[in-house]
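name: query_chain
kind: protein
chains: 1
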Amino acid sequence: MYILGISCFYHDSSACLLKDGQIIAAAQEERFSREKNTSAFPIHSIRFCLEQAGIEIQQIDHVAYFEKPFLKFARVIQDHLRSWPFSWPSFFRAMPKWLAGRLSLPLTIEEELGYKGPIYFIKHHLSHAASSYYPSGFEEAAIITADGVGEWATFSVGVGRGRTIEVFNEIHYPNSLGLLYTAVTVFLGFDAHGGEGKLMGLAGYGSPERYRKQIRDVVRIKADGSFELNQDYFAFRAGNQMWNAKWVETFGPPRDRNASWTQEHYDLAAACQDVVEEAILLNARLLQEKTGLKKLCLAGGVTLNCVANAKILKATAFDDIFVQPAAGDAGGAVGAALFTYHGLLKQDGRHKMHHAYLGPEFSDAEIERCLAKYSLHPQKMSQDELCEYVGQAIADNKAIGWFQGRMEFGPRALGNRSIIGNAAFAGMKDILNSRIKKREAFRPFAPIVLQENCADYFDLNIASPYMLLAPHVHDSRRETVPAITHIDGTARVQTCDQTSNPLLRKLIQASAKRTGVPVIINTSFNRKGEPVVCKPEHAIECFLATQMDLLAIGSFVVEKPKGAFT
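structure:
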């Protein structure tokens, strides 16, 4: 049985394909279209999924969509009516999108794909919950989902047992931790649906004390875990921005994206991070007490906050956490498909998600043809030779593009579409920023560590294969791995186990022989403002347009001349 899952028309469009309940392919549309966070119908992602399975659209048994469009449309209409006539500009902008695509999705699917079979519409937060619980490998688990807003829900808690998911409670729009976090993100000069991770990094430079009282008037958290956003501060329902005059009166003017950073900006970010952590931790504790369960599943865009996730593990009685690696809307395609299979069609036989390498891969022949198009003359190596060569380059403090195997699903580069370097060299962060990433200096780079060595370096005793936990670096190790230690002493850890990525593991071992450290630095293979690379030509163009020293692509190595950047 084949089930196609689809997420689109909001942000982070994606598609995934199940075969008998197992995820065999998944990808975000932005990787193919090169439009970051695109909301477009994921035609390229769907074509990839079909090609990966070697099937035609006629062999798809069911299609699942990650939301109920008419229920969401009802909320949008009601919301605009409550603020009429001030909501007219927003209403005027929104209606064409609804009428042109969102409400006619079955027609779009038929026209774009030629598919005429059954289509299931799954509630947004149920899709999120399913995306984490079903592939977690847990027989039973508590579930928390948190994002901006689905149809009405912004936050939900429940449990999964076997093939059933039960939602205990939901918090509804406009009370939303995700919308609060996005409001502060935009207020501080970042982009919505992309800048929230920057806000998390910025928070490490501040203290929540300056704005603690004010932010707790904005977000009122109750003892039962529910919370309310004080609408006196917001303009969700009218105007062109998320905040209003009272917000500006309280927190000052919004930061121009080209303006210098002040301590007030750092402290507001810290206050926002602190109150979101407080709300999530309270709900996690209450849910654990209610269920008595020791396993927790997380999904929804808010749960990409790896600092908060690590604190849940540290400060609650849960002993293991699974976060869907594509926790945002992209992962909704997976959840919708999985809920259709298990929840609607009542199929047993859950499959654990062992890795997120679910995107396209390219043969050496394809890569070699692409290199030739760019008149590049690479060295070809065996896997052992490649790892030894690149391991030495890491020890030599070179910036390396690493393009291998199947592309990752989700926003994190996990060692197949990565730029890598020496975590033991303090200057590596500045090299990557100045030469390639051109991003804000406060943003941390992440480590990949051999799983068996993780506890030696980080305050973490479980696997973290998807870079969704940010534990503290042990005090005794901070000088050993300075390039990946954030100012607050944390690091966004990715662990590399024995089986999920053998080539990456071999590379880290080769590097460790030379540096003495089983940790490398990892950041996504892309330039600022672009999606992570997908195809060989994307990687080659990024390599040529930046000051990377070396590109390891498939079995090939391309190296720039010595002294090229002096």
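note: The radius of gyration is 23 Å.
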